[in-house]
Write a sequence for this structure.
């Protein structure tokens, strides 16, 4: 079962990995080599710490071969050592992150898909968002226009239709963790994406968002699931709770769903 120590561990590991990445980034160098060095160093740090401090737990990491033994494990850490590698390699950008989340078999808490703890470190912004002491979501409606945060390079075509129907402003951002952070900070009102990504892209951001009282689901309203045989997430919606119903309704219209 999750304890307060798990929430602390997720936060601390994300923060410490983020500091290592800042050190790597400060040294500069070829962007391609910089990204590979950051991915490798953060992954090695996170997996070594988890092996030492939670030796009975499994780990699913973007930077490792998927060990299917995790499917029989009771506790699985889902980590993205460096979410937003392109942004990490681009001088001056702060929209990259470190994701650390915990999934537990039979979890019955408020978080979706078996998630029980999580943290998103935004090292270049000097912030760590976590399930340890989550901020409360605003209860009222957003201002006008609604602001939708979307991928810099892979926003689905229908997002423009969605923005038109909502008379919304599109905000482009890198890492999924950084996108969700803009929703939690009030910079934007909703994050929407389709086209496929992996569990490590969304597990920690979703854990933090839902712990803070925000809505998180598939774009058709279905629940998100984690520690699946194929660790893929097709699409996602994270938004202020006051507009969840509106967002799901207008997404259906924009995607011509029945």
């Amino acid at each position: 079962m999750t304890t307060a120590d798990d929430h602390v561990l997720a936060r601390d590991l994300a923060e410490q990995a983020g500091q290592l990445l800042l050190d790597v980034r400060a040294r500069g160098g070829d962007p391609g080599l910089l990204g590979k060095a950051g991915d490798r160093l953060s992954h090695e740090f996170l997996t070594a710490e988890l092996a030492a401090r939670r030796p009975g737990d499994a780990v699913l990491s973007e930077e490792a071969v998927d060990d299917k033994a995790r499917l029989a494990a009771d506790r699985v850490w889902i980590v993205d050592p460096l979410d937003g590698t392109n942004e990490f390699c681009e001088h001056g950008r702060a929209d990259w992150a470190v994701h650390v989340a915990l999934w537990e078999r039979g979890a019955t808490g408020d978080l979706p898909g078996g998630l029980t703890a999580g943290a998103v470190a935004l090292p270049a912004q000097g912030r760590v968002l976590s399930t340890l002491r989550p901020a409360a979501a605003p209860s009222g409606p957003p201002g006008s226009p609604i602001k939708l945060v979307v991928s810099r390079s892979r926003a689905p075509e229908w997002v423009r239709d969605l923005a038109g129907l909502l008379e919304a402003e599109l905000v482009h951002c890198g890492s999924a963790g950084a996108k969700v952070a803009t929703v939690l900070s009030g910079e934007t009102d909703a994050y929407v994406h389709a086209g496929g990504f992996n569990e490590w892209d969304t597990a920690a951001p979703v854990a933090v968002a839902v712990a803070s009282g925000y809505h998180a689901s598939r774009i058709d309203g279905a629940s998100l699931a984690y520690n699946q045989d194929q660790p893929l997430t097709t699409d996602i919606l994270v938004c202020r709770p006051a507009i969840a119903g509106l967002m799901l309704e207008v997404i259906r219209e924009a995607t011509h769903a029945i």
